[in-house]
Amino acid sequence: MLVQPKNQLMTRFPYDQFAKNYLKELLQPLGEVETSRKVPAQIREIDVYFLPSLQSTNTIELGLLGKFAAEPALVEPFRNAATIAEIRSCINKLFDIFAEVKRQAKGDKTRLSESELPRLWILSPTASESILDGFRTNLDEENWGIGVHFLGDYFRTAIVVIHQLTCTEDTLWLRILGKGRVQQQAIDELEALPQNNPLRSKAIDLLLSLKTTLEFNQNIDDEDRDLIMRLSPIYEQKLAEVKQEGIQEGIQEGIQEGIQEGIQAERRNVIENLLQVRFGSLDAELRGITEALLALSPEEFTPLLLQLSREEL
Fold first, then answer.
1. In a domain, 269, yes or no
2. What domain count does the chain have?
3. N or C, where is the chain less crowded by C-beta within 10 Å?
4. What letter would DSSP give residue 164?
5. Which superkingdom, per the lineage (predicted)?
C-alpha cells in the first residue's frame, strides 16, 4: 500500500482546498459545480465536477478556463507536479464517471455520444517530457495554444502544464493555480485588473484565505513563505480598505443621526414656542404633551396646538 508522507499531505491540503474553492467561485456563474464529488465505484473524490448551464454563454471572461467549461468537465488541480500514479488515478475516476453517466442514460433510455461525455482536465504546475511522452500526449496549438497536452481522443483527457501557458489574460485564471514565479506574476496581473472586476475580488479573497491557512501551518516550505510575503501587501491594503469603509460608514451613520437629531430638536423648539405663546409657561404636564407631539409631523401638530384647549391637548 502506498502511503503519502504526513507532512506532504499537510502541505498539500491548504492548496487543494484553495483550488477547489477558487474553481468553484469562477465556474459557478457558468453552470453546476460540485467539489469533492464521491465516485460510486470506490471511496474516491473528484476535486471539481462541472456541468455547464444551458442558459450560460458567459465563458469569454474566464479565457482558457472558460473554454474548458464549455462542456461537462472533471478538473483535478495539483500543487506539485502530477505523478504518473496520480494521473492514472484521475483517469480511473473519469472512467468511473463514464460508467455512471452511461448507466443514467440507459435508465433514461437516451443515447449518449462520445462528445457528450465529460472531459478530464489535469492541472499540473509542471510536467516532465518523459511523463508527457509516456501518456502519448499531443498539442493542438491552433485551437488550445501551448501547454494543453491531450491524450488519445477516447481518453477525453488533457494535462494542462501551467508553467507552459503563455502569459496572456486568456490564461490568467489558470496561472493563478501555478507555482513559484508563474503564480507570483499571475497575482501581479490579478492586482492590475480593474477594481470593479468581480472575479478579481473573489480571487483575491480566496488567496488571502489561503495565506491565513498557510500561516497557521507548521509544515511550509520556501515557496509557501514567498507566497505569504507576496500576499502580505495585498492583505494590508485590503485591511486598510475595510477600515476606510468602516470609517466612511460610521461618518455616514453619524451624519444621518445628526440630521435626525437636528430635525427633532427643531420640532421640539417649534412645539415649545407654540405652547408658551398659548399657555404662558411650560409645566410638567405641557412638557409631557411635547414628547407625544414629537411623533407627529409639523403639518399634523401645528393645527392641534393652535386650535385645541389645554384640556383637549
1. yes
2. 2
3. N
4. G
5. Bacteria
pTM here is 0.71
Whether 123 and 174 have beta carbons less than 8 Å apart is answered as: yes
Residue-wise pLDDT tens digits, 93-121: 999 998 888 888 777 667 777 878 999 99
Tell me how far apart the alpha carbons of residues 177 and 62 are, in angstroms, rounded to a whole number. Answer: 14
70 plus 171 within the same structural domain:
yes
Q: Is residue 228 part of a domain?
A: no
Runs of H (alpha helix) within the chain: 6-27, 63-68, 84-107, 129-134, 141-144, 172-175, 180-192, 198-215, 222-279, 284-293, 298-307
83 — phi, psi (to 5°)? -85, 170
Question: In Å, how far are 31, 64, 164 from 70, measured between CA atoms?
Answer: 10, 10, 22
Last residue of a domain, which of 175, 191, 207?
191
The partner residues of 46 in beta bridges, in order of sequence, read: 37
What digits encode the pLDDT tens for the residues 152-181? Answer: 999 999 999 999 999 999 999 999 999 999
Q: Does one domain contain both 57 and 187? A: yes
Helix (H, G, I), strand (E, B) or coil at 53: coil
Q: Which of 152, 166, 153 is nearest to 64 (CA)?
A: 166
Q: Do 179 and 185 form a contact (C-beta atoms < 8 A)?
A: no
The DSSP code for 281 is: S
Are residues 263 and 186 part of one domain?
no
Give yes or no: residues 33 and 117 share one domain. yes
- Would residue 253 count as lying in a domain? no
Please report, as a single letter, which amino acid is at residue 203: A
Last residue of a domain, one of 152, 171, 191: 191
Contacts of 246 (CB under 8 A, 6+ apart): none
- Asked if residues 147 and 162 have their Cβ atoms less than 8 Å apart, the reply is yes
Other C-beta atoms lying within 10 Å of the C-beta of residue 15? 21
